[in-house]
Write a structure and sequence with these properties.
By secondary structure, this protein is an alpha/beta fold. The protein is 50% helix and 13% strand. It has 14 helices and 9 strands. The strands form 3 sheets. It has a 5-stranded parallel sheet with strand order 2-5-8-1-9. The protein is globular. The relative contact order is 0.15. Bound molecules: adenosine-5'-triphosphate. The site of adenosine-5'-triphosphate has 15 residues, from helix 2 and helix 8. Adenosine-5'-triphosphate is lined by residues 8, 13-16, 41-47, 182, 185-186. One of its GO terms (molecular function) is ATP hydrolysis activity.
């Protein structure tokens, strides 16, 4: 865990709207299912993850280094102690430390298979179980899983890919003005972090309040039968495997509506949710490059979208 006084403020991130929104939705519903951020180096991925935790005083970021050993991740059971003393002695690992916080895995595509399995189990069950020589120990392990990766260095196993509620692609800004702003803000932050943070404090506070309000609103959202039908139709149309994507699409749209201050889900919530939930699950990617913008998804969903306008 790090001191938060030297963290770049979330509100000061330039652009990267989809990544920012995807991260924030995981605060609106902490059980949403995490986010995978794919993209080139130096595009504020790790900056944004740290900034996200900084928004919420009770949240910390626990880093899972790509070369961590299995013991360090899941924890260790001292069998000798168990035999000698007749009681279990457990040395907690990162999955214990991450309980109630953010578990951040940079270069998640390069993780060892054994660690991936442990992560999958904990993410699915909310529990981490360590077994050694017939002795087992379990503890709760619920966390917001955030993975980052550069697809040029290899893809992620489909099982792990499917566990992430959301996936977004980030690219460097392409226009001069935005790039200038990135430089300006970074220099200002490095010159005087405390002053820079003060400058953004009111925007940060607004974000916090918006998230808190959304957490209350989401409780009141009940998707209509028509929206369920629409969501199911999207799953079929986009040829996704299984049902996880349908469920995540609905949950994401609910979080999106709440984040917009509504208890009513509208067509735009569905499109934005689909942009983050569907691309990494589509068996046949319609594009070679992963550029799924609003228009692409809109096109794919085509006539279905006019239905949602009536359904909500
Ligand atoms: N959109 C942005 N807004 C503000 N700062 C940015 C933005 N994009 C990049 N930066 C700055 O660029 C630097 C690199 O960002 P960061 O370390 O978060 O990249 P990363 O995507 O995690 O890269 P890597 O994959 O190499 O770790 C940081 O100083 C960060 O503040």
């Amino acid at each position: 865990m790090e001191g938060k006084a030297d963290v770049y403020p979330f509100a000061a991130i330039v652009g990267q709207d989809l990544m920012r929104k995807g991260l924030l939705l995981n605060l609106v519903n902490r059980k949403l299912g995490g986010i995978l951020i794919r993209g080139e180096k130096g595009t504020a991925k790790s900056t944004a993850v740290r900034a996200l935790a900084d928004l919420m005083p009770e949240l910390s970021v626990v880093n899972l280094p790509v070369h961590a050993t299995e013991d360090r991740v899941v924890g260790t059971l001292d069998i000798e102690h168990a035999i000698r003393e007749g009681e279990k002695k457990f040395e907690p690992g990162l999955l214990a430390k991450a309980h109630g916080h953010i578990l951040y895995v940079d270069e998640i595509n390069l993780l060892d298979d054994a660690i991936v399995d442990a992560l999958l189990d904990a993410a699915a069950m909310g529990v981490n179980t360590v077994e050694r020589e017939g002795v087992s120990y379990s503890h709760p392990s619920r966390f917001i899983l955030i993975g980052t990766m550069n697809p040029e260095e290899g893809e992620l196993r489909p099982q792990l890919l499917d566990r992430f509620a959301l996936s977004v692609e980030v690219n460097g800004e392409r226009d001069v003005e935005s790039r200038m702003e990135v430089i300006r803000r970074r220099l200002a932050f490095e010159a005087d972090p405390a002053e820079f943070r003060r400058r953004y404090e009111s925007q940060q506070q607004e974000l916090r309040e918006r998230i808190e309000r959304a957490r209350q609103l989401i409780e009141q959202i009940k998707p209509s039968e028509e929206l369920l039908k629409w969501t199911a139709a999207v799953g079929i149309r986009l040829k996704v495997d299984g049902h996880r994507s349908d469920i995540m699409l609905m949950k994401t749209a609910m979080a999106m509506a709440a984040f917009q201050g509504r208890t009513q889900i509208v067509a735009d919530d569905m499109v934005e949710a689909a942009m983050m939930v569907m691309p990494h699950r589509m068996r046949k990617r319609p594009f070679e490059e992963g550029a799924y913008d609003h228009e692409t998804i809109r096109e794919l969903l085509g006539d279905l979208l006019s239905e949602v306008t009536h359904a909500s």
